[in-house]
## 1
Amino acid sequence: MRVERIMNKTKVRRIEMSFFGVIICAISVGIFKIAALGVDPFQSLMAGLDKLIPISFGTLYVIVNVILLAFAFFADKHYIGIATFINLFLLGYITQFTYEMLQKVIVNPSMVVRIICLLVGIVIICFGSAFYMTADLGVSTYDAVALVIVNTWKKGKFQYVRIMTDLVCVVLGVVIFLAGGGEVKAIPTIVGVGTIITAFFMGPLIEFFNKKFARPFLAASKAKESESETSSENK
């Protein structure tokens, strides 16, 4: 019974970590858009599709992720969980809301402000990703692609596979953006220095936050719950 109570409390903590991680990631994408120095690789692909397909970003995000969800379902169901659906149905709309709100606060940002937004966006998207990945209640459908390749298909290390999938997204994003009528001079807003940084460093930075923050946070909560249960039994 004691073990069951601890497991239930841990499950609640994992759900909280999942919500926290997804919300942080969604906010970061809105910040990337304000920086206009390139979004993260998956959002580069989404920006290209957004230019080509005339529907709201939030709805488009859901459609694309349903397609990736089908891949994850057939490749390895383990990566589909609560966090997957939180990401699927919330991230696009939270991103859209964040971007619209920030546009009202940060009007015509200078290059310095844009660079600050870029750096903040990179750090918090990796921080958020680490939390919902460590929660292990499912990951975003895009993150599942690299995890399936590494853990299910046993092909390479996560850091390097993530770089590969990110680069594929960047290339596709640019091609689709241009096919949708986007101007060449506008490419840096979706594929810029921010995209390059995230493509090469997002995987390693997520792993850093996993080791330093997310995993210790979950482990500490488990230890605290175990101590609390023991204390209750001794009274």
Note: Residues 2-222 form one domain.
## 2
Amino acid sequence: MSTESIADQIKFAYWVPNVSGGLVTSDIEQRTNWDYDYNVKLAQTAENNGFEYALSQVRYEASYGAEYQHESTSFSLALLLATQRLKVIAAVHPGLWHPVVLAKFGATADHLSNGRFAINVVSGWFKDEFTHLGEPWLEHDERYRRSAEFLQVMRKVWTEDDVEFRGDFYRIHDFTLKPKPLNTPERPNPELFQGGNSTAARLNGGKYADWYFSNGKDFDGVTEQIDDLRNVARANNREVKFGLNGFIIARDTEKEARDTLREIVEKANRPAVEGFRDAVQQAGNATGDKKGMWADSTFEDLVQYNDGFRTQLIGTPEQVAERIVAYKRLGVDLILGGFLHFQEEIEYFGEKVLPLVRELEAAQAPVGVA
């Protein structure tokens, strides 16, 4: 079993609150806002507090506590233009985007941001968002087969001329994209993330993506996923980085952090959480091995709709930092953090938690490694 970590230092991303309602489906106070001005200030705060990435959410219609939402690709570009270093990842759905049209947008965004644009391919989410638009809702593994072609087409048109591709979902003939995205020493084309938990998601991540995003997991769940993912990658002569979702509640005392979690769950918007559960659990349960996203999520897990409490980044700065570094030892390359009060908690994380993470990483580095 391999649990090597590719990155020398673990990286941090945050969920962009471009969707109303916050990151937990609860009536607890959440000092956050989905509007542009708030998000510009937040992005600037994040890049000045050690965050390298931000992930813009994708929803198309009001649902499950999220009444309003800004479109992910355009909002990502706006945040890129308002920042200097932050890399912004736009979540997208194959089936609602053509990969070459998105590749064209991505090339432009990459030039405008000096190489900081990225894509997260979301293979499944809400069935209603497809059927309400008159689009077909494919069976689980078919959605991932489509995403596999989507990822391949995007990379080909970003890196090759006169592209030919004959798939079951996309057919490209003699297509050349210009300008192509920037080719930098850090990456040959915009980074491609593949989200999911299922076997099909792991296969796509290992074969075609640069990064694999997982829902929240404990240590055992992370180890099992990383082992699968990197076995697939090695079989295809590739390396893939691993990102993990986690809802971060760092407070001066453990009691304060645990009390905050308890209040979040006690004030959960039960109809919205249960509606969300009914909408998404069919996706994971539709897989043959029941390994898909949300297949075994409890009500409490789903109050944070990407199982963020499962990662257990909850406690004092020391406790949170120690757990983050423990995940790094298992092979996690990036933590995707959600917060209750985004602005002040990202500042708190940068001041109180991140320095401890770097100290622990330095202390555990092999002799002779800076």
Note: The chain is about 45% helix and 15% strand.
## 3
Amino acid sequence: MSNSGKIKSYDVAKGSGAITPVKGGDALPFNKSDLQQQAQEPREGQAYTYETREVNGGKVHATSLQMEQGSAPQGQKEQARKQQG
């Protein structure tokens, strides 16, 4: 089941960040490798859908993050259209 959330933070140097669930609750950590569009750096406030998984003895992480339609800044939208063909 997909969840929805907004990027709370993302550290480009570390390649990790946190996403806050729309339905409430604590922000979930994620890594750059968890992003479906790894070429695009997530920005604070962008809406993403994601899955969850348990790691390290039950801690929940976000995985398979995908930017929701209409959430990308204009420059990224144009770049995404070009990549799709």
Note: The CA atoms of residues 10 and 17 lie 4 Å apart.
## 4
Amino acid sequence: MISLKIAPRHLQVLPLFASAALGFQVALVQAAQSPTYYDDALAVLSRNCAECHRPDAPNLGGITAPFSVLSYEEAKAWAPVIALRLEDGSMPPWGAHRQHQGSFKNERYISDEDKRLLLDWVAAGAAAGNPSQRPTDKELAPAALAPEPALAADGSSWWMGVPHARVAFPEPIEVCEQTRDWQPTIRMEVAAGDLSEPRWVKATEIRPGSSVMHHSVSNYLGVAVPGRGPQVYPQGWGFLLPADPLVTINMHYAKQSGPGTAIADDTTGGFLFYQPGDVIDHVVQNTIPMNRDIAIPPGDPNYMATHEHRIEQDILLLALAPHAHYRGKAVKLELELPQGPERETLLWVPDYDFNWQFHYEYKEPRFVPAGAKLHVTWWFDNSAANPANPDPTAEVRYGPRSVDEMMNARYYFTSAEPQGIVVGEEIPEELLARATQREHYLREQLAGWETAGLSERCQ
């Protein structure tokens, strides 16, 4: 016969009680070690997110951040979205591959350590922690303390500073209920300041006048796209604005159609000028290498198109700004020096996003010798797997509409030789002739249609 010894009931419970107590203690230790907002997350959020996610968030190409990470209440409410966007890589928004880290101004790379801390903070419940541990303003990242916009006399706000001259539509543009994707070219008029004489421009800004502006391109004001602020040139860099310029802007309005969706847009633009006595060493130009001979087959998930562009003079390369539409998938810009044939990758964007088009400005402009070649390669996804694709059954060619495609590779540059132009003194004849020639060309392009496309807005 086998005898069994049964332990008293209280002795049977003790191991279970000890185990539960140990688990509770572990949980307390883990909770104590979890990141909190004031102790940990705020500093990380300030250096990675607060450039946009802050009070009085800047309007970047028609969009503003919907909450401030500098407020615990707002950050906690949006914590699940913060985690989602960190995990899928869409935030912080920045297209250039990490191999370029350190090359461009206003980069938005987040370190693996910072990303892990924020994800752990959200996973642990996005706890507040001790408010007394909140970093001081001096301890927060500079982006969190960026200056507020400057207010002009008319109440408008400008991130580059109050403009010396402003241009605007003759009257607000009606974007009708049935409009979904509309791209008119509109002539702007002088709203303030004096443009009767040639001026040297140091900064430009497009101030979107509605939430339905996706992007805009102006002949003199530059480009406004999601994620891009004013164009502010380095000291001593700028361009010549001719007297009485014809300022036009191509607007891209994108919205849902239907009753109650009509909106009036009053987008404006501003110029900041150099003052007499300032010296212009570098006159900024830009050009757009492109391949118009593209025909993307229906359903093609990885169509590739290339273009080769020769650089004719020694230049200083200031910035790169590639552009495509909804089917744009990736872009690579490579430089081949005259001694070739090796190529250097100037820019690799492996996951291009039409909704975030960046202006990649070098921290230090780089010298490129005459005879160098810029090799442009774009990849396009015209398949049903592309959620942004308007129609995967269509053959897509080059064109201005968003349902068409582009494979542009705009770059900004200047002659490598310093010019030493003193503002207020006589403008070199060659530069004045170049500006005048461009102005004549623009006027010829717009002859007979001051507001191109406006008649189509409600059709």
Note: The longest strand covers residues 199-207.
